[in-house]
Amino acid sequence: MKYLIPLLASEPVSNLELSAEISQGLFTTNNVWMMMSTALVFIMHLGFAGVETGFGQAKNTVNILFKNTITPILGLVSYAAVGFFLMYPGFETPGWFAFDLAGWKMFWFSPAEADVTSGYADGGYTYWTDFLFQGMFAATAATIVSGAIAERVKLSAYLVFTLFFVGLVYPLIGSWKWGGGALDELGFYDFAGSTLVHSVGGWGALAGVILVGPRIGKYVNGKTVDKPGASVPLAVIGVFLLWLGWFGFNGGSVLSADPALVSYVLVITSLGACAGGLGGFFAGNLVFKRLDLGMMLNGVLAGLVGITAGADVFTPGSAIIIGLIAGFLVVYSAVLLDRLRLDDVVGAVSVHLVCGVWGTLAVGIFSTNPEHTFLAQLIGVGVCGAMAFSSAFLIFFVLKKTTGIRVSEEHERTGLDSHEHGIRGYTIVYDE
Q1: What is the CA 328 to chain-centroid distance, rounded?
Q2: pLDDT the model gives residue 408
Q3: What is the bridge-based pairing of β-strands 223-224 and 219-220?
Q4: 20 to 30 Å CA-CA from 323: which of 15, 260, 304, 407?
Q5: If we measure between CA atoms, which residue out of 141, 168, 171 comes closest to residue 45?
Q6: Strand partners of residue 223
Q7: CA torsion through residues 379, 380, 383, 389, sign
């Protein structure tokens, strides 16, 4: 008996140690998945660069690549400087505006105080993973604008816009839902950002397209003139890279490595993309009487944007319906924009704004959660849209009246690569 007592006494300690090991292992797994998701979202910038370069004209290739390279650079720095602490102020109910000054000081001057234990975010990830994952989302919003106003916008104007839009506008709007603000209290739902990322970027793109104006020769005598892209294969590669990145975009938004929910979200995401591609294929054939590859590609992206708001609360059946409708919407939206003489090089407004709004409203129609209402979704779309569009319009308008936002006619006609960068994207050299 004297040997049995110590054995019995040691069992609870062993169980506690085992529990701690399991807890630490789960925390590590969650954090690794979140870091992988961050990397996948980062890869989306390469996808955006491919799509924009592929659909843009060859004479502007370097300019487009330059913008797509510097966007995540400026985006992450501005998000670190202000955005992160504006978007997640740390208060239980920040309402419409709050700023986490304590978090800002910790980030820049006392990083050792950051919580990197399983006590942060319910053991899903560390403080630093949180920042980087959210920072990649933020930079995406500005990239959406880049594609819409490509080939005629001043690089300096775009860079200033990016600093303000990513550093202030996007995080403020995001705080209203993801930061626990007023829209969150209202019951508005946006799982991974159909509105908070995509339509916010889409509203910014629309403001830019209106103020910058169409490219020279795009609309002649009431007709739309096609401007052939530099590389169709590159555009296809870009779309597939974006689809790949969306596994991190939506899958990472689970905010843990929950095997059931992550796998389900990825299935819904893929079904939405496929249905969107089919919608773009059918609608393109109806409208243009041809098998339009560009519309099918944008249909895939439209389905992905549309499914993002409720990828965790849609059924596989509703995901296909939502994606299919998004695929049709993106085609007819592109046609309408051309009729309105709104020149969008890559279809960013149609993909991200129109389908972002549709996907967000679809939560109020198809969600399996009865707490999600159409009215709350409609209010959220309206509030976020009004703020994003008015802010972007103001930024571009001030730039237009001061430094200017459009390159000279000569530079636009001959191409931005030679004039602004001194190098061409496509150069054939013959050895003598």
Answers
A1: 21
A2: 92
A3: antiparallel
A4: 260
A5: 141
A6: 220
A7: negative
For position 418, what pLDDT does the model report?
Answer: 81
Those residues of the chain that have pLDDT short of 70 are: 1-22, 91-94, 428-432
Whose tokens are 């209402």? That residue is 373
> CA–CA distance from 121 to each of 129, 177, 263, 375 (Å)?
11, 17, 21, 30
Rounded-to-integer distance, Cα 200 and Cα 385, Å? 7
- Give the angle 167-421-297 at the CA atoms, nearest 5°: 65
In this predicted structure, what is the pLDDT of residue 428?
58
For 103-127, what is each residue's pLDDT tens digit?
888 899 889 888 898 888 888 899 9
Cα angle 288-294-299, degrees, rounded to a multiple of 5:
95
The tokens of 429 are what?
């050299």
Residues 6 or more apart whose Cβ sits within 8 Å of residue 336? none
Please identify which residue in the block is written with the tokens 């209010």. Answer: 379
For tokens 């975010």, what's the residue? Answer: 121
DSSP 195-236: IIIIIHHHHHHHHHHHHH-PPTTSEETTEEPP---S-HHHHH
In sign, the C-alpha dihedral spanning 142, 143, 144, 145 is: positive
Task: Name the phi and psi angles at 153, rounded to 5.
Answer: -90, 145
d(Cα 114, Cα 79) in Å, to the nearest integer? 17
DSSP state letter for 150: T
Helix axes 4-55, 127-148, angle to 10 degrees: 10
pTM of the predicted protein model: 0.91
Residue 408, number of CB atoms within 10 A of its CB? 12
Q: Is the separation of the CB atoms in 208 and 400 below 8 Å?
A: no
Residues 6+ apart with CB under 8 A from 68: 45, 48, 49, 52, 53, 143, 146
36, two tokens: 């992988």
Going through 264-355 in order, the beta strands assigned E by DSSP cover none
How wide is the angle at C-alpha 126 spanned by C-alphas 123 and 131, nearest 5°? 130
Please choose, from the candidates 258, 299, 260, the residue with its C-alpha nearest in 3D space to the C-alpha of residue 277.
Answer: 299
